[in-house]
Design a protein that fits this description.
By secondary structure, the protein is of the alpha/beta class. The chain folds into two domains: 207 residues, Vaccinia Virus protein VP39 (Rossmann fold, 3-Layer(aba) Sandwich); 86 residues, Orthogonal Bundle (DNA polymerase, domain 1). It contains 14 helices and nine strands. α8 crosses α9.
């Protein structure tokens, strides 16, 4: 399977333009996937540069090894969730800049989307358009989506649906999911999709386009199964400790819950004085780590959308460190 077949990297040119990986630098792709973004960055690093790739999916690690073959730069790959990226770096003998001169990284990228390979592999259970087990685990470890439905209370499940997918009538949907799962009638993605169609009307999204009723339910369950928002919060809190002076952090998000967190975290890292205006000097301990590359996120061009419709929801935000 080629990288193109595995996963088409979204916003590839925008990533290169905004993160500007340069010869001799150290770059890390926290969500390696098929290796498309990593390959593009690695080609800019040259023989003195280092490319590090992390992913929790063993399928992705296997594919990326093939995609990254032949690069001039040093290539290091670690299997772990990107929330543990600091542990992954330490396992390679890399410390943070504060701990060791020359430590840390110049470029850091995280693509928060589900890969095309994961969506198109029915056995992974990510897509309502294909029949497969109700799984949705990115790492193939831990409780799957069916276990989540069975083991959570109706109120907790309703909260997951409401916060992770803005699902209308979340409690009604949660009770229905619990009932069907307990009766053994919710083993497959097709069963969940059919249940959503019975319970929820299709939603409209401009120009008469309909959104399948299962879209937001699948999203909410996937986010919960993989603890995606908690993992993102951990990354956003720890990233600044690992960036070298002048470093660039890029995050590609695919829905408002992620993008809002990234935007707020970047604004916090920009820093701002909260002292009363009448004070002659700052006393609040204000510190700025750098600035966002732009006020608005970078989105796919019309040309890219024609070639890769899955890029339509992608938003890239970049933070440049001092």
């Amino acid at each position: 399977m080629s990288d193109l077949e595995y996963h088409v990297p979204v916003l590839r040119d925008a990533v290169l333009g905004a993160l500007r990986p340069a010869p001799g630098e150290r770059a890390i792709d926290l969500t390696l996937g098929g290796g498309g973004h990593a390959r593009a960055m690695g080609e800019r690093l040259g023989p003195q540069g280092t490319l590090i790739g992390l992913d929790q999916d063993p399928d992705a690690i296997e594919q990326a090894a093939r995609t990254l073959a032949g690069l001039e730069c040093k290539v290091l790959v670690v299997r772990c969730n990107f929330a543990q990226f600091d542990g992954g770096l330490r396992s390679l003998g890399i410390a943070s800049p504060a701990e060791e001169p020359g430590g840390g990284v110049d470029v850091m990228l995280a693509d928060l989307g589900v890969s095309s390979h994961q969506l198109d592999t029915s056995s992974r259970g990510f897509s309502f358009s294909q029949d497969g087990p109700l799984d949705m685990r990115m790492s193939k470890e831990g409780p799957d989506a069916l276990a989540l439905i069975l083991d959570t209370t109706p109120h907790e499940l309703a909260r997951i649906l409401r916060e992770g997918g803005e699902v209308p009538n979340a409690m009604r949907i949660a009770l229905a999911l619990k009932t069907e799962a307990a009766a053994g009638r919710l083993q497959r993605t097709s069963q969940l999709a059919a249940l959503c169609e019975r319970l929820m009307p299709p939603r409209h999204k401009g120009k008469g386009k309909k959104i399948h009723p299962a879209t937001t339910v699948f999203q909410a369950l996937r986010i919960a199964v993989n603890q995606e928002l908690e993992v993102l919060d951990t990354l956003l809190e720890r990233a600044k400790q690992w960036m070298r002076p002048g470093g660039r952090l890029g995050i590609i998000s695919f829905h408002s819950l992620e993008d809002r967190r990234v935007k707020q975290a970047f604004k916090k890292m920009e820093g701002y004085c909260i002292c009363p205006p009448k004070l002659p000097i700052c006393c609040c301990g204000w510190t700025s780590f750098g600035e966002s590359a732009s006020k608005r996120p970078i989105v796919a061009s019309d040309k890219e959308l024609e070639e890769n419709p899955r890029a339509r929801s992608a938003k890239l935000r970049v933070f440049r460190f001092l």
